[in-house]
Amino acid sequence: MKQLILILMAITFFSLKGHTQKEELRWAFGTRSGLDFSTAIPTWYSTNIFPGYESSASICNSAGDLLFYTNGFWIWNRDHEILPELTNGISGYTAPVAPYIGYPPLMPWTGGFVTQPTAIARMPADTSKYFVFSLSTNGVLYYSVVDITLNGGYGGIVAGKRGVILTTELGEKLTVVRGCNNIWVMVRSKSYNQYLAYEIRDSAIINTPVISETGHFPISWYQCGVIKFSNDGTKMAAACNKAWGGTGGIELYDFNVYSGVLSNAFVLDSSSTSGYYYGACFSPDNSKLYASTSSGYSDVFFYGKVRQFDLSLGNLAAIAASKIVVFNDVNTDLDRLGDLKRGADNKIYFSSGKFSANMHVINFPNLSGTACNPVANAIMLPMIRAERGLPNDIAVLPFFNTVKQVVQIVSCFKDSITITADTGKYHLWDDGTTGRERTITNSGIYTVKYTNTDCKNQEDTFKVTFLKLPALSHSLYNCPNTYQATAGLLPAKSDTTTFEYTWTDPDGHIIRKSRSNNGDSITGIDTGQYEVQIRTPGGCDTTLTFYVQPIPAPEASILADTFACTGIPVQFSFTGAVPIWKWHFGDNFSTSEPDPVHYYQYAGTYVASLIVTNIEGCRDTIFKTITVKSLDLQLNASSHVANVGEEIRLSTSADQPYTITAWSPTSLFADQSAYNQRVTMDTTRTFVVTGISGDGCIGRDSVRVGVNPLVMMPNAFSPNGDGLNDYFKPGSSGYILVRKFEVYNRYGNLVYEASGERALTGWDGTHNGKPCNADTYFYQIDMEVEATMKRIYLKGDIVLIR
């Protein structure tokens, strides 16, 4: 039977060891002490951690090689040297020895040590970086970031990430636990009944904690003692004691790794006669909880004890009743028995505290009662440096392969759809938005990353094709019975889908069917309700309805006389309120004036029209016939050229009866109504006669009779500037046109020439700007007279007098 028990124990040992993390294969704790679990039996090795009166933290890589360790104040690398960032850049130091070597540390020294002064968590999104947490005795929580790739792979502190304050007003409880693809940093408030869980997500710490108001002890009892999570993270135990008071207890909580919430606090033990609780540790299979109590103070002494609680019983009362002492410390000093920690071999280790040279072990912590096989002094340390604390738990997420899935979605004729990722948390879409759902409006590939319900990385890819409804445009209104309305369907830009279109008129008759990948349209439709069915080969099918409303047609009307005379204005008027109109007068003239006045130039019959258009474009046209008459009055003269004093006869005629109403010039005609006149010519004149027909149309005609002028040329002139006879020029009783005027001296040289108006000004007696000599000069002039435009040539001499 004994042999069988040993075989079963061995099987249990190796089976559980295969599931441990190698990141905890080497411990650093106490004063310069360490345990190496890479050997069959843990081997002591020397470290440089100091001081380490209570808890510490150490971590290895996934192969079990030591990376660094810390006591919350300093960090030592794998060669047991303090990181250069804590030694002012000087490498090779193993312990802080001077104010300039190792100072300032990760957190300031405030006197003494807390129960759990430090913890380590690997950054989920960057496995080369680690968060190092430091908790001071004044309740301030700091964090630093170690990048193991710095300083040649020995590790270093990231710039700007040394001793960053995260929160204050805390008790002495600090630990980390793996969550649902994240890590939780759990601490306890010193002043309130609250646990605070800070989340490490990807590469950052969320500054706002998840607060759980839970716990049944007085707040002061939560000051000291450890908090520990079960191996699966679903339970947390809190060893509680009022420092220096000798009173305390232990509580058990449920923990939600998904939300970070602690709940269902249950008191497993609150006996002050058992000494105060300090350490705690769950068995590898989470079925047992072990807790240590240390010696009391004042006049009462208690031997240190380790108690076991059987969590597999399920019933909380039964669990509390299962309490059994599985280990009694034999050390008689006060404040001795320390924390408990599960090793990489799935055994639980602890020591007798200050100056202890021994490590005790529970060999089979999954078994009930003393069958767990606690052994005192199982490991002998070469130096008396165990101290009370052991390395705090670390948190390292496993290397999950991302779970990926692709979803194909075709959206029929929708402007937008909502795509939904699987259940999980921390959903992050490729556009930076969060949440499970996302509303999209365009075809494309949409990706969301999140933590699924198995606490693994998941990436969903949605390949979405939007089959957008072709855009319908149509005439909203139509002028009745004009069949001018249109309707069209245009696919979205770059959409090459072939659609089948079926158009139906208001009577339900199909008026058009087509298949096209670039749209369709119909024209020449009237008012009413129409439908168009749109289908695709893939099964998308919808029917659109549209209406063409009738527009009230405008009504045109014309106010104008039906008879008019040429030259007499005709007033046209429109009495309606339509804003747009166009008048056509029937003589190739038109206007858009509202109430135009039009003059007809010629007699005849004209059809005038008015076209009115409302703002919707509907028209109405009205016509009106207008008869236009005129009086063609003729005025004739017996002669068109006369001499002064000669009498001429003026006579009128027309093609219809008429009456003379006026002659002009009025002063020459005493009888203004005479049909004929006689007049003696004194000068060239234009005669005008005005008459009126029986229809009231006015006629008018004129005739011009010219009088030959008398042309005179002087025989001498004196250009002396006295204003008298200063110029030699022609004179006339009427209008003359000088074509050429020339003056020569006695030698036949030309001294002056001019034409037109300049010739009428005359010669001033100079040549080339110099006065000519007094002498006789010869001239010749070519001119026309006004009346007959007869050419006159004159020659002669002129005497220039000086």
Question: Main attributes?
Answer:
disordered N terminus; mainly beta; 6-stranded mixed beta sheet; 66 strands; 802 residues; single chain
Mean pLDDT: 89
Distance between the termini: 175 Å
Please state the overall shape, judged from the principal axes of the Cα atoms. elongated
Gyration radius (Cα, Å) is 61 Å
Helix content: under 10%
Tell me the total number of β-strands. 66
Q: Give unreliable regions as ranges.
A: 1-20
Main pleated-sheet profile = 6 strands, mixed
Count of helical stretches: 4
Find the structural class using helix and strand composition: mainly beta
Strand content: over 45%
Describe the structure.
The protein has 802 residues and is mainly beta. The chain is elongated. It contains 4 helices and 66 strands. The model is unreliable at 1-20 (pLDDT under 50). Helix content is 4%, strand content 46%. The strands form 18 sheets. Strands 7, 8, 9, 10, 11 and 29 form a 6-stranded mixed sheet that branches. The N and C termini lie far apart (175 Å).
